[in-house]
Write a structure and sequence with these properties.
Layout: H1 11-32, E1 35-47, E2 50-59, E3 67-77, H2 82-87, E4 100-111, E5 114-120, E6 123-129, E7 135-147, E8 150-162, E9 165-167, E10 170-183, E11 188-202, E12 206-217, E13 224-236
Parallel strand pairs: 1-13
Antiparallel strand pairs: 1-2, 2-3, 3-4, 4-5, 4-6, 5-7, 6-7, 7-8, 8-10, 9-10, 10-11, 11-12, 12-13
Length: about 240
């Protein structure tokens, strides 16, 4: 009597199965989403401690209408942690290996039926790792907005948990996060966003990072709930 050996899939087959599963989930999310939000981020490292990037995306957040968001940012690193280097050894984003990341950027947001917004966007991110190889990131961000001479600001705190996985020779990183907004216009915590997504490397210079976002806006009545699907292409040079 012979014992049947469990069937093993080659790495290519496993990746194809993963791609089919993600395509199925993406199509299902598109059918349920209120908005589809494309985005492209182009990163360029100037030296070991400084990186610049350009972002162009479609966004709808904080109870505002759908708009484009376009502009550059600069990131400055403080201290690399060897523990985080080992944890995300195959991730192209080396800012995740830093204890602290300081950033400042400019964004232009044009609205079809309202004056455009000019935004200054500073933030600081704290990174830490756990024994279970989970990356914990805490981002504290300010949006300083000028629109037709009027000034408003938002404080945004986003906490992210990310766990890298290895599938034979392929590496991917699912994550979940929550973001909370305080808005000066409404003088209260007005927006809560819950995210779930995954980072898929595409060769040496690109990543594909789809995500699902559930957003609740309570700034003005009636309250607004949004289900959004983001499709992000990241380029690294």
């Amino acid at each position: 009597m012979t014992t049947q050996q469990p069937m093993r899939c080659c790495p290519l087959t496993q990746c194809m199965m993963l791609a089919v599963m993600m395509a199925s989930l993406t199509l299902r999310s598109v059918a349920q989403a209120d908005e589809l939000l494309p985005e492209i981020d182009i990163h360029h490292k100037l030296n070991s401690n400084v990186r610049v990037y350009f972002q162009a995306k479609q966004t709808r957040e904080g109870g505002l209408p759908v708009t484009a968001e376009i502009g550059p940012s600069i990131e400055i690193y403080s201290k690399r942690l060897n523990r985080l280097v080992d944890m995300i050894a195959f991730d192209k984003d080396d800012s995740k290996t830093q204890l602290l990341v300081f950033s400042a950027g400019y964004r232009y947001l044009p609205y079809p039926d309202a004056p455009s917004t000019n935004r200054f966007e500073p933030y600081v991110t704290l990174n830490a790792g756990t024994k279970r190889r989970i990356l914990l990131s805490d981002r504290n961000r300010a949006d300083l907005d000028w629109q037709s001479g009027k000034f408003n600001w938002h404080y945004r705190n986003r906490v992210t948990l990310e766990r890298p996985f290895r599938l034979r020779n392929y590496h991917l990183s699912p994550y979940a996060s929550a973001e909370f907004w305080y808005t000066s216009q409404y003088e209260k915590w007005s927006t809560t966003s819950i995210f779930a997504g995954c980072l898929f490397p595409l060769g040496k210079h690109f990543d594909f990072a789809p995500y699902y976002e559930h957003q609740k806006n309570t700034g003005k009545k009636p309250n607004e709930r949004l289900n959004q699907l983001g499709l992000v292409l990241k380029a690294w040079f």
